[in-house]
Amino acid sequence: MKTIGFIGLGLIGGSIAKAIRKFHPDYHILAYARHKETLAAALNSGVIDGVLEKEDERYKICDYVFLCAPVEYNIEYLKYLKTVISDSCIITDAGSVKGPIHEAVEKLEMDHCFIGGHPMAGSERSGFSNSSDHLLENAYYILTPGGQVSLNKLTEFSELVDSLGAIPMVLTAEEHDFITAGVSHLPHIIASSLVNLISSLDNDAEYMKTIAAGGFRDITRIASSSPVMWQQICLENTKNISTVLDEYIRMLIQIRCSVDNKDADQLYQLFAASRDYRDSIDVTSCGLITKAYVLYLDIVDEAGGIATIATILAMDNISIKNIGIIHNREFEQGVLKIEFYEEDAMKRGAALLKKRNYIVYER
Ligand SMILES: NC(=O)C1=CN([C@@H]2O[C@H](COP(=O)(O)OP(=O)(O)OC[C@H]3O[C@@H](n4cnc5c(N)ncnc54)[C@H](O)[C@@H]3O)[C@@H](O)[C@H]2O)C=CC1
Ligand SMILES: O=C(O)C(=O)Cc1ccc(O)cc1
């Protein structure tokens, strides 16, 4: 039996707490969050067992404290936690950048009890209401141990992460910040700048926005993420982001040359090399790329069409993650797209709908 404390219970704090509740129902989970409604929702749904105050003696009984608030607050809480926690406590965080928190930990001489954490899973949504007990499933969870952390503490935390269905990976804070600048921070900048570019190029009738095809939608989903969070990430990981942006700008200039020069070989190489590398990414691990369980089907455009399908699925307890009409016909048939949480649900859904004579496309 362990006691786990949370400070901040939004998308990530909430998802970690829910996963702990699911896999370790006997653990005692306590939390502090800024909004009382969040704590009430967590308590009422049984995710947490008790509410902590901002400053609370009960941090002393915690085996782990998860800092899941924005980074500047996490640093403030570290100072207070130093005065109350027990010797065996492991403090961790969930921040997307590891350099600044490790700097603070070193200054406070807390690097014997701090193991930085970063689940490489998330979504463009935020808040406890969007958290889920399966967000961490099959996702890499980076651990960045403080310089003085014992192997025992690191092993214990790594085992906890593993028990939640995530894949622990130990890196230094420096390695982490360069890698994530490339695979997470740059992609968000690209998505947001592409959306802003199209917004500025579009005409008054917004034709670009209206007909934006699947490719545009796929690579810009993350442009809907929290502006405050991404502003903070850019302010914290400035040097690494600037380095990878430089490389990217260089590559874009090369591509423009290939286009201007109608350099067929270079253009083919661009798309062939990216296809091969992208296809080699393991889609069974969530990593940064969440596997989508999607069906397409033809439906007649009439009132109640979607409701009927949702009812057929609900009667078999199949939850729908997302459902919607595709207006841009990228392929000839299949205008309704249904996304499921799990592969099994998708397969059962396909079978049920086929039985009812729907034409189902599994891609
Ligand atoms: N959103 C994502 O996809 C991912 C986010 N992260 C990192 O996780 C951390 C948390 O992000 P999210 O959970 O997405 O944000 P969120 O906005 O969903 O949750 C943040 C939580 O912190 C609380 N909070 C804010 N100020 C506070 C304060 N002064 N004291 C106590 N609680 C306070 C908020 O009320 C909220 O419950 C960030 O550092 C982010 O970089 C890491 C991986 C993925
Ligand atoms: O939604 C997505 O695909 C993400 O990229 C989520 C994400 C956001 C921030 C992180 O630090 C890690 C993962």
TrEMBL record:
<dbReference type="InterPro" id="IPR003099">
    <property type="entry name" value="Prephen_DH"/>
</dbReference>
<dbReference type="Pfam" id="PF20463">
    <property type="entry name" value="PDH_C"/>
</dbReference>
<dbReference type="GO" id="GO:0008977">
    <property type="term" value="F:prephenate dehydrogenase (NAD+) activity"/>
</dbReference>
<dbReference type="InterPro" id="IPR046826">
    <property type="entry name" value="PDH_N"/>
</dbReference>
<keyword id="KW-0057">Aromatic amino acid biosynthesis</keyword>
<comment type="similarity">
    <text>Belongs to the prephenate/arogenate dehydrogenase family.</text>
</comment>
<feature type="domain" description="Prephenate/arogenate dehydrogenase">
    <location>
        <begin position="2"/>
        <end position="289"/>
    </location>
</feature>
<dbReference type="InterPro" id="IPR008927">
    <property type="entry name" value="6-PGluconate_DH-like_C_sf"/>
</dbReference>
<keyword id="KW-0560">Oxidoreductase</keyword>
<dbReference type="InterPro" id="IPR036291">
    <property type="entry name" value="NAD(P)-bd_dom_sf"/>
</dbReference>
<keyword id="KW-0028">Amino-acid biosynthesis</keyword>
<dbReference type="Pfam" id="PF02153">
    <property type="entry name" value="PDH_N"/>
</dbReference>
<comment type="pathway">
    <text>Amino-acid biosynthesis.</text>
</comment>
<protein>
    <submittedName>
        <fullName>Prephenate dehydrogenase</fullName>
        <ecNumber>1.3.1.12</ecNumber>
    </submittedName>
</protein>
<dbReference type="InterPro" id="IPR046825">
    <property type="entry name" value="PDH_C"/>
</dbReference>
<dbReference type="InterPro" id="IPR045865">
    <property type="entry name" value="ACT-like_dom_sf"/>
</dbReference>
<dbReference type="InterPro" id="IPR050812">
    <property type="entry name" value="Preph/Arog_dehydrog"/>
</dbReference>
